[in-house]
């Protein structure tokens, strides 16, 4: 079970920049409990994902696992979640040749299929993917709940045509993950008899990683989706405790909310001490930014990774503007280790490392950074992860999703919509010629006519 240490937020540890337990008395915990229990927003359905039946996902995962290549088309939560799973649980997936390293033992049998995640509309990237992955031996997972995401649909249309040009049957190569009842992709699924998986109607994209959105890829590369959901269930039970001081999600949300309100800490740095969690930190940043950044509220999330960014960012956190909280993700068991050998013994500046291990060094560096920030009165939270596996990754996903939803409730905002994103989408629809968006095209063109200051 993951463990969350909040002492780095408290006045007893960091002095005047910290909180007191009395500060938490201002949190209306009864209102939060009522909002969650009554499902104030239909999108709170993500809370039930840990109870889902995975049999259909497993069946299609087995089918997808029989191909040499797996191309995922998606953007935002439809790509960040699956990429986090891939890189955390099967690092170097496309490069590793069996026998694979010890930390991959028990999964990714044969390390097939190779995985390519296309989450943009950079034409060079898609061209290169299609140059590597022979479509005859490729399954394509198209993920968009609405069925109208321009970037995903555009790449889907290109691949549809490529399949047609090669006389390949779409129903043999496509798995569509979309709304169970409506939308353009659901119509295409029905019209062409394509394999498909539903995104639950009450689950938004950035809260969807523990649905078919993330779990199909997991199953295709040999990761047990049930283990992820078991982890989510176990942390869920702790995060539904109605006592704030016994609920880690309530404490995380309230602690960051209060440090912003009382101490002007507007930036949340997330810093996992594991390369395998680098993509996870990017997943968190979308969740935190898109859920909370509205109506003049929210935090700026900042992705980082230890120890790398101790040498690029720590100076700023230590002595720069006092506007940050650092969230450390500390790993107890890396699943593999390397001993530092007894070489260069005549050089005092190097020999002190001999006899230690890389695992020991990275853990010490994480604690050292934590202590240094504490000594300097800079707030932080430390989340200890026993090991990086499907069970604990499921816990991390669910914990941060609940914490984000609760933070939105504290702000009094809807943590599930994204009105600021829609404006850019609508302008794009207008310029690309989508019916009903003609006025947006005119607006777009009027801005083009302005004389910007350029040099």
Strand content: 5-15%
Helix and strand run: EHHHEHEHEHHEHEHHHEHEHEHHEHHH
The whole-angstrom Rg is 23 Å
* Residue windows where pLDDT falls under 50 for at least 5 positions: 99-109
Q: Terminal Cα separation, in Å?
A: 56 Å
> How many domains comprise the coordinates?
2
Concise account of the structure shown:
By secondary structure, the protein is of the alpha/beta class. The protein is built from 18 helices and ten strands.
Explain what this protein looks like in three dimensions:
This protein has 455 residues and is of the alpha/beta class. The protein contains 18 helices and ten strands. The chain has a five-stranded mixed beta sheet, with helices on both faces. A five-stranded parallel beta sheet has the order 3-2-4-5-6, with helices on both faces. About 2% of the residues have low confidence.
Key attributes of the depicted protein:
Rossmann fold; single chain; alpha/beta; 18 helices; five-stranded mixed β-sheet; five-stranded parallel β-sheet
Task: Itemize the secondary structure elements and their pairings.
Blueprint: E1 3-5, H1 11-14, H2 29-37, H3 55-64, E2 69-73, H4 77-89, E3 114-118, H5 123-132, E4 138-143, H6 150-165, H7 170-173, E5 174-178, H8 184-192, E6 195-198, H9 212-220, H10 225-239, H11 248-263, E7 267-272, H12 278-292, E8 300-303, H13 314-319, E9 324-333, H14 348-351, H15 358-375, E10 380-387, H16 390-411, H17 419-431, H18 438-449
Parallel strand pairs: 2-3, 2-4, 4-5, 5-6, 7-8, 7-9, 9-10
Antiparallel strand pairs: 1-10
Helix pairs in contact: 3-9, 4-9, 4-12, 10-16, 11-16, 12-16, 17-18
